[in-house]
Amino acid sequence: MRILKHIFEKNKEWARKIKESDPNFFAKLSKEQKPEYLWIGCSDSRVPADKIIGMMPGKLFVHRNIANVVIHTDLNCLSVIQYAVEVLKIKHIIVCGHYGCGGIKTAMDNREHGLIDNWLQNIKDVYRYHQAQIDALKSEKEKFTLLCELNVIEQVYNVCHTTIVQKAWRSGRELAVHGWIYSLEDGILKDLNVCVTGKEEASKILEAK
Ligand code: CO
Questions:
Q1: Which residues are known to be catalytic?
Q2: Which of 39, 56, 57, 72 is deepest in the core (most CB within 10 A)?
Q3: How many angstroms is it from 123 CA to the middle of ligand 1?
């Protein structure tokens, strides 16, 4: 607290306001968490998961990384998905990207950025899978926008094909995977209409795009 005192002051103020409207809020929440949704989003400071959908603590289980990427060798992300699905029994996984994503923009240029280029290789792969569709667009802005959307859809596909989600569906569990995108310019969320509720739908989502 030597140099970031103002943050602790903000925290006290935040806790006080919540207690004022609900004196038992923290007492109730400290006993257990029962979130209904798993949010997989970008680390971007302008896309604070629970704030943009007006949710209080306890409602949203969250995983964020640069450009909301789901990779089958990422133990961190997979552990979050497993805990959310198998222990917390959430019924909805939301992959939420955003327009103007710096990670995606960086993946689109051909300069060197060091370590992060390894991570962004996943986005470059998404570009490669959809190259004809993206290159058919005229402006860089349109290409950027489309890649932000296609990246969400590709990550929805990846979530659906994790062993965790496949197992949940196999055992008859009710579980939906959604693909959304957020606009930094007006704060509005858009549904990319790739809601997947079972194994058969999962194999079709990329065909439609
Ligand atoms: Co981003």
A1: 42, 44, 46, 98, 101
A2: 39
A3: 12
Q: Say what the pTM is.
A: 0.95
CATH C-level class of 32-208:
alpha beta
Taking only the tens place, the pLDDT of each residue in 162-196 is 999 999 999 999 999 999 999 999 999 999 999 99
- 90, two tokens: 């959430």
- Alpha carbon separation from 167 to 87, 179, 197 (Å, rounded): 14, 20, 13
Task: Give SS3 for 178.
Answer: strand
Task: Quote the ligand 1 centre to 119 CA distance (angstroms).
Answer: 13
In the chain, domain spans: 1-31, 32-208
**How far apart, in whole angstroms, are the C-alpha atoms of residue 147 and residue 169?**
29
32-59 confidence digits (pLDDT tens): 999 999 999 999 999 999 999 999 999 9
Q: Is the dihedral of CA 182, 188, 192, 196 positive or negative?
A: positive
